[in-house]
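Fill in residues.
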């Protein structure tokens, strides 16, 4: 029997990169997975990938920062699969500038996607977790449920040009530790993984003109200049970048039954990056 057989998981931002790798890992271990992306095509690609491997999956396309999104994705998950066991708050993007160039729009955009969106999804999940805990306590068949919030070494240590992003990712740490205390009585563990230098389209070394991504009509530059990239690698004891699959492995550790007594923790997945 697979480790996550019979479990239902939500993975936001799973159309590409780390999110897709997390969704794939959970599905490979038997979970039924609800995938999400801002755009339809990447979400459908991940959905097809999971279903092609024999997994049960469902796609909820949309902006995690939309006011109604938390209720919508949790509601569709429960309607489709009958419950919720694993919630991974992964969706997000980077919008970097020095503080003198930070606008209010930029500040709120980073807080909206990295802090407010997870808050709303977690709030929507709360009655589902409470009701499940009550039913299972009465029957004696107790199940441990899992929340994994995704932060960054920028949220743990800070990072130049990432004021809003770092602040929002730091909020994930506070939410994690607070809900670990609130939800222990429901047998829900709440942990956080803070990623270091992982190879995704947002962090690839720049070659020529910067790549851009479209978020709510904004064209945002992504990628890292080669000098910064080389410095990051030099400060990483393993001497290389992490892969999305390795990032997914760190999340998976908190989803395993073997981690049922681990909660309120922040795992830095960075190859030993030295700040």
């Amino acid at each position: 029997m697979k480790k996550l057989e019979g479990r239902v998981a939500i993975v936001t931002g799973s159309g590409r990169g780390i999110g897709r790798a997390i969704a794939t890992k959970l599905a490979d271990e038997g979970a039924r997975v609800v995938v999400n992306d801002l755009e339809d095509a990447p979400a459908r690609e991940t959905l097809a990938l999971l279903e092609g491997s024999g997994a049960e999956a469902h796609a909820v396309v949309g902006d995690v920062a939309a006011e109604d999104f938390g209720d919508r994705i949790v509601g569709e998950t429960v309607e489709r699969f009958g419950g919720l066991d694993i919630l991974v708050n992964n969706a997000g993007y980077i919008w970097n500038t020095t503080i003198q160039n930070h606008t209010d729009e930029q500040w709120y955009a980073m807080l909206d996607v990295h802090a407010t969106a997870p808050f709303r999804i977690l709030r929507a999940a709360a009655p589902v977790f409470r009701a499940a805990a009550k039913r299972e306590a009465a029957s004696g068949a107790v199940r441990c449920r899992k929340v994994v919030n995704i932060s960054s070494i920028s949220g743990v240590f800070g990072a130049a040009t990432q004021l809003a992003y770092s602040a929002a990712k730091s909020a994930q740490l506070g939410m994690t530790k607070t809900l670990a205390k609130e939800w222990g009585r429901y047998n829900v563990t709440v942990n956080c993984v803070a990623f270091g230098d992982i190879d995704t389209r947002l962090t690839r070394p720049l070659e020529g003109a910067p790549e851009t991504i479209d978020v709510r009509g904004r064209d945002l530059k992504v990628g890292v200049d080669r000098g910064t990239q080389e410095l990051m690698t030099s400060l990483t004891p393993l001497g290389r970048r992490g892969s999305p699959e390795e990032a997914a492995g760190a999340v998976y550790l908190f989803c395993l039954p073997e981690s049922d007594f681990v909660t309120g923790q922040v795992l830095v997945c960075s190859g030993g990056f030295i700040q």
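DSSP finds eight helices and nine strands in the chain.
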